[in-house]
Structure formats: structure tokens, C-alpha cells
Fold this sequence. Notes:
- The chain has one domain: 2-Layer Sandwich (Alpha-Beta Plaits).
- Helix content is 39%, strand content 40%.
- By secondary structure, it is an alpha+beta fold.
- The model has no long low-confidence stretch (mean pLDDT 89).
- The longest helix is centred in the first third of the chain and has 19 residues, at 18-36.
Amino acid sequence: MHFGRLTITAKLHMISSLKMKRSTIKHILNRLRKDYNISVIESGLHDSKNWVEMTATIVTLGSGQMDAIFESLERDVAMNNGLEIVNTEKETW
């Protein structure tokens, strides 16, 4: 079994309040959980309305499967309106 963690730091555009950020991020996180069957949370930058840090974890049978899911996840997050990925950090065991 392979375990992996992907942390994405992204800049939010057109967000005017923390309430709007929470609503946007909640929608994104719920959709990612549903579509990819992964554990994902907002892991940092909670008080910033312009930045978000999300961390996803996954368990797979092979490392190739994990890499494919992480790449798909990054593409999906990048295609969301108002999100610009600035940094990603992967760790696998």
C-alpha cells in the first residue's frame, strides 16, 4: 500500500470577505471529496481572504495510481474559477 499527501497553496481572486472564501472553499472541498474519494481539508492560511492551503491524503495500491490521482486533482483545482495554484508539495510513503 502507498500513502500520499498533496498540499496545494493557491491564490483566490475576486473574493471580498472571509465569508465568501469559506463558501467557495467549502464547495470545492466537498466536490473533491465526492469526485476523488479522498480526504481533503483546508489546512492553513485560514485568516487570509486571498490565499488558501488545502491538503489531500490518499491510500492506493500502487504509486502510479497515486501519481495519476494527484495530477488529476491538481488540474481540477487549477480549473476552478478564481483559483491560481502557486505551490504544490507532495509526499509519499
